[in-house]
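Continued from yesterday's entry.
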Amino acid sequence: MSTTTSVQPLFTAFTLGNLTLKNRTVMAPMTRNMSPNGVPGANVAAYYRRRAENNVGLIITEGTVIQHADSSNQKDVPHFYGEDALNGWANVVSEVHAAGGKIIPQIWHMGARGSVNDYSEAEIEQIVEAFAQAAADAKRLGFDGIELHGAHGYLIDQFFWERTNQRTDRYGGSLAARTRFAEEVIRASRQAVGPDFPIVLRISQWKGSDYAAKLANTPEELTQFLKPLVDAGVDIFHCSTRRFWQPEFEGSDLNLAGWVKQITGKPTITVGSIGLDSDVSSFFTEGKGANTTSVEGLVHKFEKDEFDLVAIGRALLVDPAWVAKIAEGRTNELIPFTPEALKTLY
């Protein structure tokens, strides 16, 4: 495949341990609610395969929930437990690999209870074990790694955030202490999959209930937050923002992924309205679509070594060939995002 000069840097290979990606593009995880009874069917497998066929470097699946009573409160979200659901995921992996792609599942607990304060330590232990079981199943099914969803106000993030975590035991208190639950999930997952299976952790400042929320107000606080997670075994940080081009802290142009990479030395994934002219909150709050836009600013930040991988969400949801079109300079063929796109697995 020929690649236009301006985007060439995004189409270089990336290697982390045993994982090699043909380019730096990532399909961001996006909930589709298309898996009746929690089982991803042939239509879901074909949806992911189409992205692999069109040169996406790494596919991160929609969030798929672990086995726990309040891991989900949404209809038709895929499960990552039970024979039928796991067989469905095995087929997804097979289809993506047959098309030459790489794929990891986003392992998810929604925290549907809404508060982490009344979980007993025994129940926390059960949840940690459920995450570890999901990690082991992902490896057994042939996935190329896992992503743990620690962002957007879901369970792991509910432990991170002081507004939702008022625990007075070892899982609450300082910012570093509030990472303890995530540390246990990461360590248990690592034990389940061994040293060479990539573990990605998705993090965010913003929450689904509060776009202005901050876990860390300064680089120093971000350092305190990240160190225990690195020590626990995270390989890659997926740094969720609504607008990838926005600086995270005053006095620097670095976005969140840029700061995390600088602090930890770990590879990072940036995300946030790549290829579109309005952010995801305009869709969630106003039901707005978004027009296509240049990736020139993205390439510029990538060339400054701010981040290693770039995750594309809505632009890739509506157009499975987005990556191929960008690579080949077919920008006149790009498709705008509309809310109606959510009704179809393109």
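--- second protein ---
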Amino acid sequence: MNMESILGFAPIILMFVAMWFILIRPAKKRQQETQNMQSSLQRGDKVITIGGLHGVIDSIEDTAVTLVIADNVRVKFDRQAIGRVVNDQV
């Protein structure tokens, strides 16, 4: 291979590097943050599921979480269905 053919691949390589920094790297970071949040859930945390349901964690199992969504109403969700923990600080 001569130098011209190697330089011809440079834009393609630069595009892949740019795509990694723009798309893949931030997605992996968000995924890691979500996994950390889901593994640190505790009883009593106020949460919102990915479906938009608000509740308070009543119990936690290995792969499931039981939420209290109203008086005497408990619903069991997969741990991965917890979208975020709600902070009441305003």
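The chain has a mean pLDDT of 91. DSSP finds one helix and five strands in the chain. Will compare against the first tomorrow.
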